[in-house]
């Protein structure tokens, strides 16, 4: 789908949702003629409308309203635009006893059209609607009429309610909301609705929500003993022992696949003098997002990114063209001063680490290096069963650093790399950062959600800010280009996504406990211990748990499955006698009795292949 | 050696050194009759004396003075104590034209005897001399006479200079020093002397100093490309790629030997709300050593130790006696706000990590657990060829937390553990921390220097402060005891010590580059590449460098040896023809031509055995 088609579809959906908000208000006014109306904007996946009502809404009310909305939709009402002067409009809403609408018109008179969209939508986040560029004084407003209902409205509607599919929308929930988000104002009731073009999309969305709730890493992570949060350090995870196993496995994975031969790991301080941040430009542009502290009358800050430190380390060496590409990798924890209000699970944190690397190289090396990175990205996400989509090459924006020649060369190199790696891509003209072109991509998880995870970003600026150089073949001092790259991105965010992607059932190689040994009764405990010892002898890195409690085998299996332990070895008299183990998966699949040696081979292969 | 004997020896040595300071002053006065004398205290390894002289001292002067001191010593002079009232003494020094001595007496009159020692010694650090407990007004002072020379002096001398061995002391160096360390005062010349009981000790000391200068990790570390420091983050090392290899190997070593089965690694935030530090007591007692910052109007601090976080994590779980001992290990970087003035290399830093672990356990488990720890310590330091000495069990001090019963039980458990591990030890009565008894030990390196590295410390207090508990066998809630333990201590400090211990020549398993492939000329480059490929195929974890520059083999060998690369494979025509490699060590030992397979076996074994 091209960008343009995407915008068309988005606008169409917005019109649909906005129209439904009118139908909802109309239905509410029929039920409560004295209802006072607030705002009713489009939001992600639907719409809402705020009402001041004589009483609290019941679930029964919602059903009635939904039914009435369907009836209204089916009566094929047109949306009719009416223009009025603001004076006439205020008079009209006074007659309707709608004081909030009058306030909105007054706001528009005061702040002009720039604010008008914001005012009418009240909650612009997630709507995809942008305020206009220039403020114009407002003396006219538009209203829209559907059936008997007339609402103050900027417009964007379906022509006729017959375009709304009755089975593609649904009232979702009711919550409280203060008029204009201010506790000093009256509390209104906000009715949320979901709306899509087709029933299929609605059903799919509802299923996804249900699935997401079950998979939510903020719930699943602590339940599996992976991590937890505590108010003593908001937004920084406490890796529990099992979570630390996963983290260590991921770090080993990064060292193997994201880094590897040719990559050099370093570990730099996490605390730097503000002088460094001034050189890098972070002090000017990023200071509010940094944790700042005073040390011996100087300002220091915890590092929010590795790059400035890496520039400093490069600067202390002396490099020639033969040393390039020089790949400086670091997995230290970074800190960003996010407001507690926006913190969320592992996806929005104050402390996180990345599979970060800065590659210092000569311009002529860009194509090969980036092609190598793209191949690594392909390899990594294939292992996790995720797909790469929406690949864009973003080119030189209007305001940018560097010469036309540098940009052209770099853009061509990125395009060449994309072709070398056999990636399909589109050009995003002028959407590069001011300091260099970049490649953007989405990673699609099993739920179809798209994530920005991998970063491949060229940078002409930072090496210049730090006056870095290398001795070129001809003996001249040249400035290297830098590639900022992270392939899985933040360990924390990636772990959160993995938990949801796998619904907690991490692949064998990542599982904190890989095998649970479950003797059926006390009688098999001795054999169970022998099996444990034998497994450990075969490979001391196997992560095995023996459950020899005096509990029923049913309970043991249930708990091991709840803990998402990939393999359970059920040991009864039969197994003891046959000197075998009965293998069961966490999904409940029985592979029957097996010689221990065969089982070891089986899991060894799976671990190696990262299945 | 017992503590008492140690004190005797120390006092004897101090008397010797102090007497030599008098001989030096006497010799200086003979050379410069108008010399004005400052202070002349005992310091570590010797003494110094400050003089205001008519001209700068030359190396020739020092030789003359040293010779004169030997002559004085050999003339068997007695030290004779003379007591005078401060008035008489001031009069005496006025006659001698010694204004600094008069100032010293005035100070003693003013500040009393508490200050007297400090005043006379001027630099109390490292002397082992303690100021007296109570101030007494001073109206009398003592002077000591040797030959013709009389000095204001608290005493502590040899009876007769014949007790000084002429070949066991040496004038060391001259430096500038302001009277009383104040730049506003006259600049004096400070002559340093080294002095020991025997010639052997002096020679040994000089050899050690020479060796230490060569091994200084602050010089060797950056030269080997292991780490460096930068003013943008004083006191926190920048691990360069090679240093990071060593660090990662040490972390793997810790996971294997210092932790291992039964240990659970965690990773907690490095930033905590001050509320946590208030609960732990650090806010009250340790705040000045912490990096403090404000976040959303609350005080936070970077963690200087892991314990409070671990207490918090324990508290969020629910544990029974069956879960104990619970071993919570963490290697996160810790931060201490040391003054820039005291920072030094890797030994005094602002950022460091430990092989830290907190063991939560029932009192009856202490003996077995501690015995296990002592065995691990033995194992670890044997690997590094270091010795464990001066083992003390420190018992309950006067002021302490916990009951007499708890202390007795814990002390007995520690003693039992020491016996189980077959460690010889002495009791340090009353020298435990107020929160629990502990085991102290020194680790002796190859230079005979002793280090405090391993910590095994019981703690009754912290679990109580955090109200931790576990369900005992009888169902009652009990408070666990905590063992704070680190076996190698700080990674940074340990790496610094290792560099000096091995003089940079780290053992094979720790070496950043293990094998250098050195073709004699361009002709052997193709074969060298084949050898490299073959070695990588044999074990992709071998760390190998190929030096195929157009440089002489002599230069290549020299540089590889300077870089302390354990093995060099020299490849000439002979080796190409025989399909072998000529193996040379960094010490210059040739093992002759060898089949590559044999070499692989050899280094594989050495790496595994951590030789």
Walk me through what this model shows.
Two copies of one chain form a homodimer. Chain A is an alpha+beta fold. Chain A has three domains: 9-209, Threonyl-tRNA Synthetase, Chain A, domain 2 (2-Layer Sandwich); 220-501, BirA Bifunctional Protein, domain 2 (2-Layer Sandwich), CATH 3.30.930.10; 515-608, Anticodon-binding domain (Rossmann fold, 3-Layer(aba) Sandwich). Helix content of chain A is 38%, strand content 24%. The first copy, chain A, is built from 18 helices and 30 strands. In chain A, strands 11, 15, 16, 17, 18, 19, 20, 21, 22 and 25 form a ten-stranded mixed sheet that branches. In chain A, strands 1, 2, 3, 7 and 8 form a five-stranded antiparallel sheet that branches. A five-stranded mixed sheet of chain A has the order 27-26-28-29-30, with helices on both faces. Chain A is globular and about 85 Å long. Chain A starts with a helix and ends with a helix. Residues 122-135 of chain A have low confidence and may be disordered. Chains A and B meet through strand 10, helix 7, strand 12, strand 13 and helix 10 of A and strand 10, helix 7, strand 12, strand 13 and helix 10 of B.
List the helices and strands and how they pair.
The structure is a homodimer.
Chain A: H1 3-31, E1 36-37, E2 42-43, E3 46-52, H2 59-74, E4 80-85, H3 86-95, H4 99-121, E5 140-146, E6 149-152, E7 169-178, E8 187-195, H5 199-215, H6 217-223, E9 227-228, E10 238-239, H7 241-258, E11 263-265, E12 271-273, H8 274-280, H9 282-285, E13 292-295, E14 298-302, H10 307-315, E15 326-330, E16 333-335, E17 351-361, H11 366-383, E18 387-394, H12 404-420, E19 426-428, E20 438-444, E21 450-451, E22 455-459, H13 461-465, E23 470-471, E24 477-478, E25 481-490, H14 491-501, E26 515-519, H15 525-538, E27 544-546, H16 553-562, E28 567-571, H17 573-578, E29 581-585, E30 590-594, H18 596-608
Parallel strand pairs in A: 11-15, 18-19, 26-27, 26-28
Antiparallel strand pairs in A: 1-3, 2-3, 3-8, 4-5, 5-6, 7-8, 9-10, 12-14, 13-14, 15-17, 16-17, 17-25, 18-20, 20-21, 20-22, 22-25, 23-24, 28-29, 29-30
Helix pairs in contact in A: 1-2, 3-4, 6-14, 11-12
């Amino acid at each position: 789908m091209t960008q343009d088609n995407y915008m068309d579809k988005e606008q169409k959906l917005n019109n649909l949702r906005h129209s439904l908000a009118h139908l909802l208000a109309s239905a509410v006014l029929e039920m409560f003629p004295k209802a006072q109306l607030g705002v009713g904007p489009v939001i992600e996946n639907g719409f809402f409308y705020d009402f001041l009502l004589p009483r609290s809404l019941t679930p029964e009310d919602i059903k009635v309203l939904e039914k009435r909305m369907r009836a209204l939709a089916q009566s094929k009402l047109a949306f009719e635009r009416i223009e009025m002067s603001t004076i006439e409009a205020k008079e009209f809403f006074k007659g309707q006893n709608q004081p909030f609408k009058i306030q909105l018109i007054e706001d528009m008179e005061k702040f002009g059209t720039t604010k008008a969209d914001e005012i009418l939508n009240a909650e612009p986040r997630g709507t995809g609607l942008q305020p206009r560029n220039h403020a114009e004084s407002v003396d006219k407003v538009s209203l829209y009429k559907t059936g008997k209902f007339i609402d103050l409205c900027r417009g964007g509607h379906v022509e006729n309610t017959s375009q709304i599919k009755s089975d593609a929308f649904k009232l979702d929930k009711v919550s409280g909301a203060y008029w204009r988000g201010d506790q000093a104002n009256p509390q209104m009731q906000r009715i949320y609705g979901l709306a899509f073009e087709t029933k299929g999309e609605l059903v799919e969305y509802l299923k996804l929500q249900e699935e997401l709730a079950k998979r939510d890493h903020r719930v699943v992570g602590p339940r599996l003993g992976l991590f937890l949060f505590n108010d003593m350090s908001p937004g920084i995870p406490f890796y529990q022992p099992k979570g630390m196993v996963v983290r260590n496995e991921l770090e080993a994975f990064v060292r193997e696949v994201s880094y590897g031969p040719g990559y050099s790991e370093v570990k730099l301080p996490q605390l730097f003098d503000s002088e460094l941040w001034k050189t890098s430009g972070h002090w000017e542009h990023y200071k509010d997002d940094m944790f700042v502290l005073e040390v011996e009358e100087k300002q220091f800050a915890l590092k929010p990114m590795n790059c400035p430190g890496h520039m400093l380390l490069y600067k202390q060496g002396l490099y020639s063209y033969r040393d390039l590409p020089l790949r400086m990798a670091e997995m230290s924890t970074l800190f960003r001063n996010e407001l507690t209000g926006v913190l969320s699970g592992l996806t929005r944190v104050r402390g996180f680490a990345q599979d970060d690397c800065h590659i210092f190289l000569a311009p002529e090396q860009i194509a090969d290096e980036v092609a190598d990175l793209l191949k690594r990205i392909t390899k990594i996400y294939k292992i996790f069963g995720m797909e790469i989509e929406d690949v864009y090459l973003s080119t030189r924006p209007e305001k940018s650093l560097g010469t036309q020649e540098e940009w052209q060369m770099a853009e061509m190199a990125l395009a060449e790399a994309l072709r070398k790696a056999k990636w399909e891509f589109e050009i995003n003209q002028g959407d590069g950062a001011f300091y260099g072109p970049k490649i953007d991509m989405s990673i699609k998880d099993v739920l179809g959600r798209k994530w920005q995870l991998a970063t491949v970003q060229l940078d002409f600026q930072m090496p210049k800010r730090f006056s870095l150089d290398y001795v070129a073949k001809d003996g001249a001092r040249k400035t290297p280009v830098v590639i900022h790259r992270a392939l899985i991105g933040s360990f924390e965010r990636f772990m959160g996504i993995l938990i949801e992607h796998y619904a907690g059932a991490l692949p064998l190689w990542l599982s904190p406990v890989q095998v649970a040994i479950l003797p059926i009764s006390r009688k098999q405990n001795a054999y169970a211990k022998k099996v444990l010892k034998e497994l450990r002898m075969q490979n001391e890195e196997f992560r095995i748990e023996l459950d020899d409690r005096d509990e029923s085998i049913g309970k043991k299996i249930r708990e091991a499955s709840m803990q998402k332990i990939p393999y359970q070895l059920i040991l009864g008299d039969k197994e003891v006698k046959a000197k075998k183990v009965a293998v069961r998966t966490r999904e409940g699949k029985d592979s029957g009795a097996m010689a221990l040696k065969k089982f070891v081979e089986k899991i060894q292969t799976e671990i190696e292949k990262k299945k």
